[in-house]
């Protein structure tokens, strides 16, 4: 029994040490949350790209329906959504639902996350056009999440098809991420725009 107590104490100290090291890099982590959910904090943050405090911190690990997922505990089948872990590490507890203010499912920046209920999450999805019924009804520049206009997409597709610019160059020119450009030129997004310039 005493051996188990000492083992648990050593484990808590190890978590605290790792959390302390991360705090030196201006990341606030709650040791109690990490211990409760058995989160390997260093390994978790190593899978998050953090270019700046204000930007999206995109998950580089495994994805499930666009959302990051991370193994916790000792069982390989125990997984949690990455953005929920990020919220928990920053706030010390988990609400019923964790929503993205940036609408980027891969984002793990605690500044872009807010807690609520499942009802709040559904309302947020509907308001932003991400609910299935709303999402399928609204296309192109009228979609609440659209970052480009229909005219811009038509021009982007033409320029890309003619080899006038790379996806990275087009993304920088229009102030969006490369993934947004890729979806546009491949016809995954903006399906309402004429497809004559879509690359196959």
Can you describe what's shown?
The chain folds into 2 domains: 2-132, Alpha-Beta Complex (Homing Intron 3 (I-Ppo) Encoded Endonuclease, Chain A), CATH 3.90.75; 139-185, no CATH class. The model is unreliable at 1-12, 14-27 and 196-200 (pLDDT under 50). The protein is elongated, with a radius of gyration of 21 Å. It contains 9 helices and 7 strands. The N and C termini lie far apart (64 Å). The protein is an alpha+beta fold and 200 residues long. A 3-stranded antiparallel β-sheet has the order 3-4-5. It has a two-stranded antiparallel sheet with strand order 1-2. The protein has a two-stranded antiparallel sheet with strand order 6-7. Helices cover 44% and strands 11% of the residues. It has helices at 2-23, 31-36, 41-46, 82-91, 118-127, 132-137, 150-161, 167-174, 178-185, and strands at 48-49, 58-59, 63-64, 67-71, 79-81, 97-100, 113-116. InterPro entries: His-Me_finger_sf, HNH_nuc, Homing_endonuclease_His-Me.
């Amino acid at each position: 029994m005493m051996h188990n107590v000492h083992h648990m104490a050593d484990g808590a100290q190890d978590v605290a040490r790792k959390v302390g090291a991360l705090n030196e890099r201006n990341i606030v982590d709650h040791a109690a949350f990490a211990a409760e959910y058995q989160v390997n904090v260093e390994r978790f943050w190593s899978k998050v790209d953090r270019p700046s405090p204000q930007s999206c911190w995109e998950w580089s690990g495994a994805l499930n329906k666009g959302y990051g997922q991370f193994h916790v505990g000792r069982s390989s089948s125990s997984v949690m959504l990455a953005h929920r872990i990020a919220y928990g590490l920053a706030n010390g507890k988990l609400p019923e639902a964790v929503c993205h203010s940036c609408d980027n499912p891969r984002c793990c920046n605690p500044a872009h996350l807010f807690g609520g209920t499942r009802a709040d999450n559904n309302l947020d999805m509907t308001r932003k056009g991400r609910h299935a019924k709303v999402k399928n009804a609204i296309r192109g520049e009228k979609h609440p999440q659209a970052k480009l206009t229909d005219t811009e997409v038509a021009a982007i597709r033409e320029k890309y098809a003619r080899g006038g610019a790379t996806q990275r160059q087009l993304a920088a020119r229009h102030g969006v991420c490369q993934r947004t450009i890729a979806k546009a030129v491949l016809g995954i997004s903006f399906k309402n725009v004429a497809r004559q310039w879509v690359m196959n």
